[in-house]
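fyi for ur records
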Amino acid sequence: MRDHNHMGRRLTYYREAAGLTIEELAERARVSLAFIQQVEAGEIVPVDLMLRFLAAALGITPAELTRDEPAPPKPVQVWDPAEDTQ
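which gave:
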């Protein structure tokens, strides 16, 4: 049995790593915004065809989304005062 939460976290990880909003991913994958939200929340697991759409939109393989292991940790962004334009 697939862990819905692992897949949701992995989808969120890869979406954010690609610099996409939920809306942008939904548009690229040609699925609804609600669908992406439900997958990321761990409420549903997409069927294989939808996995392929999501993976293609993110530039990864479907296997990256369905691994049984948790998503890699989010990288920590360190504030750099030299980059502060304010």
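The helical segments are 4-17, 22-29, 33-40, 48-58, 62-66. thats all i got for now
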